[in-house]
Fold each of these.
Amino acid sequence: MAQTVFVEAINEAIKEEMRRDENVFIMGEDIRRAVYGATADLLDEFGGKRVLDTPLSENGFFGAAVGASLVGMRPIVETLTSFMWVGMDQLISQAAKMRYMFGGQATLPVVYRATMFYGGGSAAHHSDRSYPMFMNMPGIKVVVPSNPADMKGLLKAAVRDDDPTIVFEDGTLFGMRGEIPENDTLAQGELVVPFGEAKVVREGTDCTIVGIGGSVNHAAAVADQLAGEGISVEVIDPRTLVPLDKQAILNSVEKTGRLVVADPAHKVCSAASEIASIVAEEGFWSLQAPIQKVASEQVHIPYTPSLEKHVYPNVEKIADAVRRTLD
Amino acid sequence: MEVHSAGEFTGAAHPYIGEEAVAVGACAALEDTDYIAGNHRSHGHPIAKGGRVDKAMAELYGRVDGYCKGKGGSMHLADFSVGILGESGILGSSVPVAVGAALAAHIKGEEFVSLVFFGDGASNQGALHESMNLASVWKLPVIFVCENNQYAVTTSYDDTVAVEHVSDRASAYNMPGLLVDGQDAIAMYEATAEAVRRARAGEGPTLIEGLTYRYEEHSLGLGRVRRGEYREQSEIDEWRKRDPLDILENAIISQGIATREECDAINAETQEEVEKATEFARNSPFPEESELFEDMWANPIPFP
């Protein structure tokens, strides 16, 4: 199997989907020159009509993607989470609500690729991890891949899905290397990861860690580290938050009796909060210790590295949380 | 209005009376394969585009036979089968959507065009300005139709718009801006037909401003709650003298297209159609509780 960098996995997925279906096109800011790397070489292969550099007008082009999807296109929009605030009306009032509001007449196969660049001194306006907000709003599927193979397979699934989807790409993983199976080695000839199927990243018996996005890798490192202390940790990656594979989480907690949720989003009303509440409501009798949430502190992202490093979940914080469940 | 004040259906409803010529004239210049999008005051637009009156009425009544099975209501009429991409209660919000339909035509090299209705109030929304710029840069086949009825709820045009006419704003986006008598359906048709020709020829978007007037309150019942007046009765009376239905009727009679008797017959037929539509709506059932969870997803997922 080939070792592929996360950002190349995005590029592979886009290319394969644009080759497969001429209704797929992509637009965003500075994508022809691939300033973030994910759209490299698209202009050469697919031409200017299907690879559109937009003005700085998120409301305009987020909405144009909605309109194009209504009449048979399958748009991919590249943006950053922090720029999504500018186009929220189109995401919420139109993309999320249209199908229901119009009694099922509208079909919106539109994908927003929203990159989360955090942890690298980008400061408060460029470090958002906003997926929990979209879990709260019905009508949008929410995807948070944690490795190159899932990134590729989930993005391809998103393009094929007939509902509006936001793929939150964790920028801390952009340089991550991982194995992606070659298409000719796969039974179906390509890698498509279905929504709503969590992945067991590590098997264990003492405590479950559910990790989101970049926190999955931290959780796996914690599992490896604590194995040395005789603690067996199971790591679950939900991969998609809407739909959420809650049964996989409940099954794991039934086995381990303990739950830590590691989530790079702000801790109030986070993905971690929702997962904790599901387990409290439906898996309470499996629990042998209080659920632990390890999420970002409820402050804005400070620029200076001396402060920013304290905001997010990390290996140390997650390992401490696991130990607390075993006290 | 009659059945709303009698309490036959609830919720906000925004009368279009007095502005009919804009929708009728503009939609007459479109083909069935073209698209429109509208706003909260879009009762007239779907009918002008060829939608069914009875389904529109059933939607106002919140019944299963409505366009949207009762889930959209007065502000969200949509009939995708005749190219109506829906109405938005957030003003200016449907403009980028219409631009997106035009973008699809552009990418695929197809001939259809897209037309969006918005008001003088929404002409101040950033979404409109972003959309006009985008459409002009990409030369998209879209027609922006401003129904300038002079007031955003109670706030007058002069208090909120920095230019004399909304159509003046076209120059900022390098597209033609046409100021049209919005009480005259034929004038609206002619302006739109030229915009459609331009759009299909790949010459890009056009902004059309139809100067018109809303006879009634912004929404039904608002007169009972608002404090103070915002316009003179004499102003309403003046506009009523130039009623779009009278203007169209007089024009087609004086040009020998139809006789007075034929016009009377059409009016009687229309009245009957509306009465039948009201009966259709009254007789249609409300949706069952199980319908609450339908239509959320194209590829359904479990509800949390």
Note: Residues 2-216+229-285 of chain B form a domain with the Rossmann fold fold (CATH 3.40.50.970).
Amino acid sequence: MSAPVGAPRRVLVALAGTEDPALVAQVARVVGGRESAIELTLLHVEETGPRELAAHGLPLRSGPWPARSGDAVEQRLAEADDLRAAALLEAWHDRFAAALPDAGIAHLVARGRPEQEIVAAAGRLAADVLVLCARPRTGPTEAGPRSLGHVSRFVVDHSPVPVLVVRRSR
Amino acid sequence: MTTTAPLAAVIFLVTIGLVIVRPRRLTEAMAALLGAGAMVAAGLVPPGAAVGDVVGHWNILLFFVGLTGSAAVAERSGLFEGLAGAAARLSAGRPRRLLVALVAVGAIVAALLSNDAAALVLTPVVYVLVARFGLAPLPYVLACTFVADAASLALPVSNPVNVIVADRLGVSAVSLVPVLLPAAVASVAALLGCLLVIYRRELPARSPLSPAADSWASWTGVPRRLLAAFVVAVVAFGVASAMDLPLGPTMTAVWLLLLGVERTGRRRGRPLEGIGWSLLVFVAAMGILVDGLSSAGVTAWLAALVLGPVRDSPAAAMVVAAAAAAIGSNLVNNLPAAFVMADAVHGAGLSQASAHAAAIGTIIGSDLGPNLTPVGSVATLLWFVILRQRGLEVSTWSYIRVGLIVTPITILAALGVALLLGVPR
């Protein structure tokens, strides 16, 4: 049985990394200040499509130039993605640790399509609540039609656990 | 059309099919060579003429040896990392400014070292760079890919198509620069505008990470001597082209100069590494194939069909040639499309002004056309199939929509400028 939403213990925060740092204060306001210790898991999903694209070139690259070793390039790009994921989670770790000093914070990196990986991770961890930003890359979002990006839309539609959508308003 | 026309057309189309599908790891060059062999075996091209075709292309072939060799030296020297690093420093952590700076770098690389250098070599470098800033790579990766084509109108060195079309039409590739360079500037500007609009909501105001300035590559990684040699090479090539010296020997001399300077430093590569041998074979074989089509009357038929109605108007010839080349590039591959179009223009009996305008149109269409849509290209569809087989879901739409928007707009921008500058009135 998961705990009531009012007293979440296992909190999964999905981060593209580009969210407004104000997200931390909003999350802390909703889940913080309870007796039970919070286990915070910060999730970042590496999107693998662009990596493929960059390593192998667009299919329509004009000339039949000598084939480059796409796999070697992809390896290099995968390392760059891992570095980015680690650095982003590290940065957000510090922000959450400052706002929620008693929380235990874990990092989780997944690879694939963000919307699917977020839903899968929420189920796997049996999180009490899943936190996500309405549109992690767009700046302020007012409530209203189309205020969710396609990733958040999918997650809200498919999440096996309660979802907390955080908006960044002006 | 002659009675051999259907046979020639079938040989050509089957060859293109093999180039696209590549059964049993058959390379494009081998497929084209098989097709050329079939043309000769079918008696459509006499063996002597086939040899003459290859020898006749000596200038282009030497040019590609020098160009791909020079690009390889640039890659080994760390020039691409240096340029990307400079763009990163200019952008001061602002994602939008970084996009603009990287488009500018991509345009310079494509213009001076060919579109494939920009797309295939610069893209991974840019990917690693934007990852350091914690940014999502897709907008930047697509920017590299598209700017490679948008800027590839600029100079003869920017795209193999430019030299091939000019060569087959007997026009000096250099004489087209006064029209194509401004057209390239217009298409890059149009591309940049499109990207900024398309990604207006996806690029954050500031990058989430601020990597230390020395954590990404900088100019210091490129040996000074080699940097100076690149500048000398660009100037020398410009002067030689302005003097109408043949491009092939000039480019080869540039490559040898760069190699020589590279050998004086610590970081040396194998000199022949990175040369586009398959491109050479492909171009030579494609010349024979299109000769077969031409002698069977297929290209003349195409020319009458497509260019006949616009014979007397240079402006209309340019627009029609651009449209035909763009469509052809999406149906087959842009090199074969450019070959066939150039031959059609050649055989259409156009006035000199119209032929000149049609050459420009053909270059615009086959340089900018190929990114249009996966639906229009068998090659792209296959690429998606391969990705699926490897278990990778690609959100197709995010790639398609950019091509659908960018390609027509860049073509229109380039055509507009070319019509203003390249059509006598």
Note: The CA atoms of residues 323 and 345 of chain B lie 13 Å apart.
Amino acid sequence: MAETKRVVERPLSPHLQIYRPQLTSITSILTRITGNALIVAAFLIVWWLLAASSGPEYFATANAVVTGWFGDLVLSLSVWALWYHYFAGLRHLYFDAGKGLEVQTAETLGWVIIIGSVCMTLFTLIVI
Amino acid sequence: MRYLTARKRAEGKGASHTGTEHHWKMQVSAAGLAVLVPTFVFLFGSTIGGTYEEVTADLTSPFLVILTALVLVVGMQHFAQGCKMAIEDYTQGSLRKGLIMLVFGLSYAITATGLFALAKLAL
């Protein structure tokens, strides 16, 4: 009986610890992080709305937090997270349509998301 | 003989166990938010920072109130579904179930609270 040991070359899943960070992977991970992080802003704004609907005293308390340094910090970062997630989401829909999947195009789109989100954040913070 | 078609036997056996339903939900809500969010950011953003009188006056505008309600409902559903996907990626078993229940409960609570506040301010 001839037994030959077959060595099967199975593909390894990418080990995140030693995986070289790439623009495409980083922008993808950031999409998830920004999307989930936006719950903080949602919570803050709904609390602020509830306070406004309760009366002037409660509004003064919530408004002091929301327009104070803590609120300014959270909401400014959230504006960036929102625009980032917005552009990344549009890219996702574009990818889902089977377009823009060539490495060069995907990397260019990554830069579009980063630069676009920073520009829109600055624009938003200046306008409002 | 089992009266099962080949399709019926295959359904639910993929990694997600649900087919493409979840992905489709995310695409639909994403497209909706793509329209709603830019207007919301600039309109609602300029309301924040006003005095009590200014804020309560702004939030009687039907357009702003309906827009905010839509962003709240669609946005929180989009969040809950997206967060569910992340939970399913990183956890298993009872922890997974518990976290999904927690996220959906939180999303519904935030939506209900926001809608209550909007209704009270608008009417």
Note: Chain B touches chain A at residues 23, 27, 30-31, 33-34, 37-38, 41-42, 44-46, 48-49, 52, 55-56, 59, 68, 72, 75-76, 79, 82-83, 86, 106, 110, 113-114, 116-118, 120-121 (CB under 8 Å).
